[in-house]
Amino acid sequence: MRTRLNRLGRNIWQARYIYMLLIPGLLFFIIFHYVPMNGVVLAFKKFNARLGIWGSPSVGWANFERIFRTPDALTAIKNTFEINLSRLVFQFPAAIILALLLNEMRGTRTKRIYQTIYTFPHFLSWVVVSSILSNFLASGGLINSVIVSLGGTRVNFLADTALFRPLLYLTHNWKEMGWDSIIYMAAIAGIDPTLYEAATVDGAGRMQQVFHVTLPSILSTIVILFILQVGRIMNAGFEQIFYMQNPAVMKVSDVLDTYIYSITFKATPNYGFSAAVGLFKSAINLVMLLVANFAVKKASGSGLFA
Amino acid sequence: MKRFLSLLLCLMLVAGIVPAFAEYDTHVSFTINAGHTNSEMDYTHDSLYEMISGKFNFDFEVYPVSKDKQKEKIITWVNGGTMPDSVTMRDFDYQMYVTWAEQGLLAPLPEGWEEKYPDLYSMVQTSGIYEQMKVDGVTYGIPHATFARFSGMQGTVVSHLSVYYRKDWAQKLDITIGDTITLKDYEAYLKACIDNDMAGNGNTIGFTDDPDNLCNLFMLFSGVDHDAFRKVDGKYVWNFADPGVLKGIQLAREAYEMGVIDPDFYLNESADATNKFTSGVAASMFINCAISSYMGYKSTFEESTGLNGGECIAITTIADEDGTPLGIQTNNWWAVTMFSPEIKPEVQERLLAMMDWICSEEGQLNVLVGIEGKDWEMADGVVKVLPEADGTYKATIDKYNSYNVFRTQGILADDYSFINPSNDQDVVAQVKQMYATRKQGKIILMDMDYEFFSSDNKAAYSLKLSDEVARLIVTKDIDVEAEWQKFINDNAGIWQPVVDDLNAAFAN
Amino acid sequence: MTEIRKKSRLNRATGWDVLIVIILTLIAIMIFLPFYNAVVISLETNRAYALHPVSMYPVEFTLRNYAHLIEKGQIGVGYRNTIFITFAGTVLSMFAMVAMAYAFSRKRFPGKKFFFLLMMFTMFFSGGMIPTYLQFKNLGLINSVWAIILYSGVSAYNIIILKNGFEQTPPELEEAAKIDGANDLVIFLRVELPLQGALLATFTLFTAVGYWNEWFWSTLLINSGSKMTLQVVLKAIVAESAALEDVSTGEAGLDAFAQGIKMAAVMLTMVPIMCLYPFLQKYFVKGVLVGSVKM
Fold first, then answer.
1. Are residues A239 and A103 in the same domain?
2. For the residues of B303-332, what is the DSSP string, one character each?
């Protein structure tokens, strides 16, 4: 027993510099993430600002019970789940496809120009993008003017609930696929050309080369970016939806982030209720992470957190 | 020498000068958020600020928040315990106020404030809710009256939301619109403007608005209030479940399908809507019609289009099918000032003293018209507004940025607008006429019991009703009545408890 | 290298080529057009825009929108604050993240798994907006730019990827250094860091862009006009009706939030970054490539 402790002590001492390097980051996580986690108990309380989080009276499961009485909250949960997963399907491949396409184009200079243009929208913030989108799709906007001049009648694109989610994914792709494709472009550029030569010798056509040479070679890049995407989706969907929402499409567009925002800041706040709703968001995040881990394991053999 | 000095001191005491020095000789600083402020303006470097801050020996820092975000920001501030010393909040919510007061998130007014600040007290009484603002016998907020000395408003205060329309277009189309207008005539006017492309750009918009005000308009045409709760036959019910609301929604939907409503109305913020009207693209809007609002829209219109506002813009009141003007009762207060629980007592007293002065006749004059000698002078006991160097009259809001802050601290400028000589007299006349018309018609009354009732369930009640109305208007191919009923049923868990609470408290 | 590959193909344009060029060009147009539209609007008068919201050139040209912003706008203040925050934030965050990533990349030390899980847990579980806000209040960080500097930069995701990068260095180098008597710190500073140049540059860029674009907590925490960041100012101009309700004369009503001013604000905040990006593109590409291939 003594020797076990001794060995432990020695190991700790040997690793002392490593602990030093850990400290700034750990401090950050503790101060800004763990301490606020006590907020979770709020979900079981009725918040009284004067008594603080710990002093507030407990109400058991009442806040959760209220979630099931509130249709808007349930809608938000459903939407978050659906939209998050859909984003993985509809948004993630876009940059890869763009990179593959761009790679097939001849002429390095044109390629570079196109590439630069594609990255422009990344630097805009969503408030601007949704404002531009409004300009285009509103009844008095560009697309409708074109329709009218061609003899048609105006279409109310932005009020159509069926259109909202496709527009969401489309505009996200419009904004980010250029930026995201750069990495893939770089990875593709690094592929050993002899692989292509070998494939051509084997009689592989262009399409086949893409699937059998290009894609597998950049698999590891794809895996990293998949992880990054999952993280981004979990945390950054708020801004886009917040600015693109409008009353006509609220039923399909309100997600937990925007819902929590509206109940926390726009009505008589009940922080206990907000916290309870927030817990659902954590649950969905967990699911997303598990999905990501699973996909990564399948693709590269080892999980995210090995 | 000593004798002389003591004599002088006695004289000064008698003249009341020395106490004045003693009152304001400590300099105080405070933070304030009031009215509509934006981060672009500097509020502390104009003559008005210098005069008032000099008089009361203070300096302040403004925490600017734009109009649309003010409610959110204040909620965060108060709940987080980080509010500035003084906050003047429009969109006052009684339920929130009570919750805050009970949790100690607001500073109480000092005892005896009613006697110490008589003009302030008088304004609070004029607002009509002095008693209601007390929580456990202590006042935590100061409501600012809309109409007091000068407006001549008696009895029920009516909301000034009005229909603005293009007089010149109506004339060209041979349409006459009087003091009131029925829905049918209104739709006819809008349709004519659209069909004849009066804006000249191929896409004239009929009626434009943001979802909230559009909802108000059609509910009014239908004769109901859509929000909140009211007593019917002695028992409380939820307003939105009133069949009048369904009728209002259907009327709106018909109008929308007819094409007379801006197809993008549900995307509008209030500013987008007014922009469409003032830039000459839309035929009508339904929005605030306080004297200063009307003046503002008129001058923006003139700047945008180059046309004469007086010849082109006019207002009218909504009437039901019989031609009876419709109005809705509103509060005689527009905002409430609250203080941070961390405020220092001397700062609070200084602020109250300043507000008291601003509520007095002298103060109202100074804040709303400007500085004596520079902007106005007394001539034979009557206030005479002085023109600028070039002979034109400039509104106070354009002369002094700090006006935006100070004007919120007393009686609303609406009141003085009625006699402010520098105002556009044509507008003043129209607005007076508008109020007179409404007073003679049918007025939907507020339920004061409900307004000042608080309970946990009421705190949990928050439904975006005008959003739902907008959705029902805009979405194609739905059974509106079924959807409306579904909305009522689905949300019963939210509104039913409030109804129960109200009936337990008030049913007879 | 790609040239060799291309030469080995037949040198005539195939149907595929044409199709690809068409698709890519269409995409380029769709991406470029809204920008061009925004530039046009920013150079137009409000009246022209209202009558002709859709036009390919400024119907009534004016520089008034830009002038208004530069004179009255808080853009200057916004830039000043954002640059400071980005700079300080990136330095501090990178420092914390890289140190932690390196630490986690080491093979074994007591508590490694525990600390790693500690960090990972925060990736999907958080106390929520309000408790975090209250924590800021307890730390006295309300209305302070330091709140944003300290909070928005460190990301568990980035740490994981950086850790993977560090894990790729050949162990011989570390062993050689150890034989020479170097301790972990020295190895970190002299051996590992220099090897990860490209990866670090990339994530520095990522982090910096993150700070530059941060707006949520800035809006929530900053109260004074003098401390507002660029994004907050931009959003106030574009999204919120920054006009005053009872407006009496033309100037305030006209200038505030006209479409032209909004677009001019967008241009002023975006263009500097867009110009910077091509210069950094080289490092960025190399870095991510290196970091990812090695995974």
1. yes
2. HHH-S-HHHHEEEEEEB-TT--BEEEB--S
Q: Are C261 and C68 in contact (CB under 8 A)?
A: yes
A36 touches B: beta carbon within 8 Å: no
B176 plus B135 within the same structural domain: no
The C-alpha of A158 sits at a distance from chain B's nearest C-alpha, in angstroms, of: 8
Most C CBs within 10 Å, among A8, A21, A132, to test the C interface: A21
Residue B427, in any domain of the structure: no
Total number of domains constituting chain A: 2
Contact C261, A154 (CB under 8 A): no
What type of residue is B236? Y
Which range of residues forms the domain containing residue A261?
Answer: 68-300
A61 part of a folded domain: no
Structure tokens at B374: 């520079």
- For residue B383, the cross-strand partners are B378
Distance, CA of C115 to CA of C99 (rounded, Å):
14
Residue in chain B lying closest to A141 (CA): B264
Nearest to A102 by CA among A111, A110, A93: A111
Q: How would you classify the pairing of strands B282-287 and B141-145?
A: unpaired
Q: Which domain holds residue B453?
A: 162-329+443-506
> Distance (Å, rounded) from C-alpha B456 to C-alpha B441?
37
DSSP single-letter state for residue B372: B
Q: Is B101 exposed, middle or buried (0-12, 13-18, 19+ CB in 10 A)?
A: buried
Residues B351 and B480 in one domain: no
Q: Does the residue B6 lie in any domain?
A: no
Interface contact A66-B460, CB threshold 8 A: yes
How far apart (Å, rounded) are the C-alpha atoms in residues B396 and B375?
9
**Contact present, A222 and A96 (Cβ < 8 Å):** yes
The answer to whether C185 contacts chain A (CB < 8 Å) is yes
Q: Do A104 and C16 touch (CB under 8 A)?
A: yes
Q: How far is C285 from chain B (nearest CA, A)?
A: 39
CATH number at residue A93: 1.10.3720.10
Cα C98 from Cα C101, distance rounded (Å): 5
Q: Report how far residue A143's alpha carbon sits from residue C202's, in angstroms, rounded to the nearest whole number.
A: 39
ipTM of this predicted complex?
0.77
Burial A217-248 (b: 16+ CB within 10 A, else e): bbebbbbbbbbbbbbbbbeebbbbbbbbbbbb
Residue B90 and residue B177 in one domain: no
C20-36 tens-digit pLDDT: 888 888 988 888 887 88
Whether residue A84 lies inside any domain: the answer is yes
Q: Tell me how close the Cα of B13 comes to any Cα of chain A, in angstroms.
A: 45
Q: Domain ranges in chain C?
A: 2-42, 64-289
Region B275-282: mean pLDDT is 86
- For the segment A150-199, what is each residue's pLDDT rounded down to a tens digit? 888 888 888 888 889 999 999 999 998 988 887 787 778 777 788 888 88
Q: Does residue A57 lie in a domain region?
A: no
d(CA A296, CA C28): 32
Of A50, A248, A264, the CB nearest to B475: A248
Q: Give contacts of B 323-382 with C, CB under 8 A.
A: none
Tell me: do A188 and A253 sit in the same domain. yes
Domain C64-289 has CATH 3.40.830.10: no
Both tokens of B500, joined, read: 């129960």
User: Which whole number is the average pLDDT over C82-89?
Assistant: 94
Q: How many CB pairs under 8 A join B and C?
A: 126
In B63-182, where do the E strands start and end? 86-89, 134-135, 138-139, 141-145, 162-166, 180-181
Domain count, chain B: 2
Q: Which of B142, B69, B133, B136 is nearest to B103 (CA)?
A: B136
Q: Is A19 found in the same domain as A100?
A: no
Lowest mean pLDDT among A41-50, A134-143, B130-139: A134-143
